[in-house]
Amino acid sequence: MENVKGYCPMGCGWTLILDVSGAVACCASTCPRPTAADELLQDSETEHEVQFGPATFTVRHPLRERLDDALWDCRLHEYVAGLTKPPVPLGRYRATWEDDEWQWEGLE
Questions:
Q1: Where are the domains of the chain?
Q2: Is 38:25 a contact under the CB 8 Å cutoff?
Q3: What is the pLDDT of residues 37-94, one digit of tens each?
Q4: Angle in degrees, CA 29, 44, 63, rounded to 5
Q5: 48-52 and 91-98: which strand pairing?
Q6: 103 beta partners
Q7: Pairwise CA distance, residues 6 & 102, whole Å
């Protein structure tokens, strides 16, 4: 097993390793989810996901927005927060920016 540079996303600290199968894992005995880092790295979604409810919405931002604090300047969150009603029927959608507007692809 090799040490991996980085911190456990569960808050364990500098405890990541590369296990014998090649997966990134936390080696802290108290870690509540030792596979969390590997699970995050296995997520292939690179776009925003939005869940529209009757009176609320939730945006799941792509991990790339954590780089350079891009999350703080997210155009999608600002756009959706400014709406008086959802732009699509209630449900879960992948949102992509194309042709100067948000495109909605239904998920599930």
A1: 2-42, 48-106
A2: yes
A3: 999 999 999 999 999 999 999 999 999 999 999 999 999 999 999 999 999 999 999 9
A4: 70
A5: antiparallel
A6: 96
A7: 34
